[in-house]
């Protein structure tokens, strides 16, 4: 009976770790989660992983069985176990699954970001020297997540025949703030692969280029596609007032993409557009996103300041229990407050003079390195991600702060940051 009871407990640890990792994947990009809230979730995940580690071989047997039908959460849990216990056979199986099923790679990568740098000693070096492009890419991204320069392996990957590896290498160069690689990033803007060109443009922008990289992102931002919104927000944060206004005018001509324009206005930070944002709050489809952009400019927490309204009864966004409903994606505005247009208009009438048009505002202040650090410490996750990017744009060569890292590691880095 004792062995059966232990098996039940270990199985529960495994199931909870898998489920909570899925929850974490959503919360690290959520508009309503702060770092201390992420810490609570991370502590729960760590407790279940510790339970699995304590169970030893019993846990490994259950994990091996779960890998017969792996998902991202299962691979995360298995890879963490393999790395922390230095189990080469289990790690090899996880990497082999990721190679066979690329959609599961995100689980492996999140495990490499979760564990401590000490758990990766020797493992990352072997990955960087592996024949497989995917494994070399895992090694590069592991270095980026732990702010370690991969050395010659990064230079070699920038010219690798494998397009996916080239794109990952460019991403790593930008995240690590390697300004000496800016010429290589600019050369990659002429790459034959669209994903490589996009990665090159994003990296070059972080590393200080405001010419060819910006033009590449402008082309992506002007074309409907999965990277359009990210390209628009990355680009507009780097532009001066005149450039940002010209870009917003161009985006406004597309009457079928109001959400893209609203996002771009929040990233631009120009209070000139706040009255228009307030008008969009009357539209149920745009209301919450307009409120988020308003908060990005002013720094207001709408829920905390009672500037929100009750959710409308007619609103049904995202998936539901109806199998015939074609909506299967999560509501991207989930977690955002419903702004009250009347109260916000009244607040703006009283306080808007503090936000002169033509000045870039981010979270209630002109963006400076110190202000971005403050937002990294106190903002919501999407705001923190914007702060990390803004910090790099203000100081090219600054490593990109990883807002998806375990919360305790983020808190330690923020505490150690210069005032």
Could you explain how this protein is built, in words?
This protein is mainly α and 419 residues long. It has a domain of 115 residues. The protein is 62% helix and 0% strand. α1 packs antiparallel against α2 and α10 packs parallel to α12. The radius of gyration is 23 Å and the shape is globular. The chain starts with a helix and ends with a helix. The model has no long low-confidence stretch (mean pLDDT 94).
Inertia-based shape: globular
Residue stretches low in confidence (pLDDT < 50, at least 5 long) are: none
Evaluate the radius of gyration: 23 Å
Number of strands: 0
Strand content: under 5%
Largest sheet: none
Mean pLDDT over the full residue set: 94
Distance between the termini: 57 Å
Order of helices and strands: HHHHHHHHHHHHHHHHHHHHHH
Helix fraction, binned, reads 55-70%
Which structural class do the helices and strands define?
mainly alpha
Number of helices: 22
The oligomerization state is single chain
Chain-wise SSE layout:
Elements: H1 2-27, H2 35-55, H3 57-66, H4 72-84, H5 88-100, H6 105-114, H7 123-128, H8 133-145, H9 152-158, H10 163-175, H11 182-187, H12 194-206, H13 212-221, H14 228-238, H15 241-252, H16 258-268, H17 274-280, H18 287-298, H19 341-351, H20 369-378, H21 381-394, H22 407-416
List keywords for this structure.
419 residues, mainly alpha, globular, 22 helices, 62% helix
